[in-house]
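Quality-control log, excerpt.
Job 1 of 2 completed; input and output follow.
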Amino acid sequence: MPFNVIVPSRIQLTSKWRHFVDLPDAVAMGVVLWDDIVIEDKLCYCYVCTEEEATYGQVIVNDGSKLAISDGFAGHTPNATICKTIDNQLFKKRLIELLVS
């Protein structure tokens, strides 16, 4: 039976001027369930701001790129793997199968 799944979310605009729906929680759960949907990932050092009032609760991600103000991971060991690209079609197929089962 055909159906549409509507999920409230922000619609974002990529740097290539394409709209996309940002579903970080669904994608994170999808990666846990089906690790073969990951096409590209990267080791990063992440931390959560817990003292700075203006940024409290934000996750800061350092991907190790050398910038003018930093030098790689600045002595920190990577503690997270960030998924940069997933197989969207495979993810959607499996998600729909899971929802209708």
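Job 2 of 2 completed; input and output follow.
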Amino acid sequence: MNVILFIIGIIVVIAIVATGGFGILQNNSFGLHLFSSGPLSSGPGSGGWFGGFGSYSGGNIPATNEIKSGSYNNSASSKNLPADKTRISISSITHGAQKPNDEYVTLYYSAESNRAPVDITGWTIGNTQGHRYAIGVGYKLALDSAESSVWLLPGATAYVHSGKSPINENFLETACTAYLNEGRSFNPSIGGSCPRIDTQSLVYMNDACLTFLNGLSSCYQASISGNNAVGIGDECSNFATKHYSYRGCIDDFRFASDFYKTTWQVYLGRPETLWRAGHDLITLYDADGHIVSTYQY
């Protein structure tokens, strides 16, 4: 009898091994594979349980499956990015503003001369509430008719404002864009001085004209009025109107080697503020949905 029971036991053991343990050894009640080194995947893709926290690398990330906590592994999600993209980061965020035009994210492309320009058109910026906002096309020359992608050169900065553009477009700063401050509200204001024609070349103008031209404020359109304009003459008046303005500045200096700057002014066009006043985790994604940079405050 003992021999028969022993033989039956051997047969049962062989049957269990041959059938994979009737499912008993395949999985336990905690969802772990007994013959693997980690947890099973619990979502789309092959990222495992942690796929939603930095290891996603395929296609566009759904808007409803973005950042759920502050424990984002940025290095893991950026490891397959081209080297040039990894040099772009969120350097600062102005948040807690009452108006969307006073709120902006600053992007910076590290200054390394051997890096190629990077097109950030179509990149998005997201918050922990699951909202993402896209960077649209811009204009290399403000108030021009030719659209352009938003290209960042090494050492370049892009201010990405939550609100609407005062001139209804994204634009690259030039030697003349400070003229656009007049009558408009930019935050931060467009800095820099504007080039102007050397009055030493205008010896044919009368003294009153030269005094008037030398007294004009930089980056402000010439105003032909007041005591300072007395006696300047029509030729001088026409000259000032033509050359001391945004359009005149472009016509006179657009082919100078230092005409184009490296700062973009980008606007998301939102009527509301986007970033939480107290604490948030802001994420920059490329056009394919890969994480490029994060900024927590």
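Post-run check on job 2. Helices lie at 2-18, 51-55, 74-78, 207-214, 234-243, 246-253.
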